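Deliverable D5.2: sample structural annotation.
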Amino acid sequence: MAKASSKKPRDTAPIDPMPARVDPCLATLVDKPPKGPDWAYEVKWDGHRIAVHIEPSRVRILTRGGYDWTGKFPSIADDARRLAVKTAILDGEAVVLDDKGRSDFGMLQRALGRLPSPYESGAIVFFAFDLLYLDGRDLRRLPLRERRRLLEPLVAGREGAVRLSDEVQADGDEFFRVACEHGLEGIIAKHVEEPYRSGRGEWWQKITCKRRDSFVIVGFEPSTVPGHLGRLLLGARQGNDLVYVGGCGTGWSHELSRELRKLLEGMKTKAPAVALRRKGAVFIEPVLVAEVEYRAWTDDGKLRHASFKGIREREDEAAIFSLSDGTAKF
């Protein structure tokens, strides 16, 4: 009688161990789309960057900074379990779409529950644009075109909470022009021959219709209308400190102004998070982050023509704008 082998069948053993977490590949901001046959284009989604980890006994959803937000995206986790895979890591963006099919960050934040909202968590969908791991194999060493070839059969054509972020075959300049005309945030260009690299580099590039970043809310100025918000006071990171970079006083409705004022009133502090003396300012604990759209920076390092787009918790530190990175040039 033949002796039973102690080795597991080859198809049940992973070729590569599944990473517990992958630092995301980040796009570099450029002025114009790159040109050439090696570049593919996608819509720049206006949401939360997340990675969906599908494992044999569970699904985990991790933020860009590595926080486990599975509980915040139940519909995405549930739909991911239905994919025809044993193990996988999908990279993409969680969004809420408006009535014209555009992603809206403010709608997403309200669906996540920080402010009163008509949107439920089930309205959040995940657009997958990359596949980093599949059924025991680490795909990060493969070029993007190969990773997309493996991703598309898994999620293309789906209408649930997990969907495909389509690549667009077009002239980059023309695609960017059309995206801005339709009120989109911008586009992403990706080099199809490059492997997946964590961190920021030239292999992924973003071209935005307007500049947009995340800043810590360090205080506010009351409106002349009782109970309403006049202006948010904002801070950016500089090393381990926060530095005041100006504020924004537009971008909210009459109703949202009142809701934000009520929320911030409950966070007041006597110890400002930034070095700032401003008559009438109310300082708050630096625990919330504002998504802000703006035109440029002033010569003294303040935001120019800033407009509020949404609010979120500060716990995912990775996205807060940092002056130390040299991103802002005054």
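Annotation notes: DSSP finds five helices and 18 strands in the chain. The chain has two domains: 22-208, 211-325.
The annotation will be released with the project's public dataset once the embargo ends.
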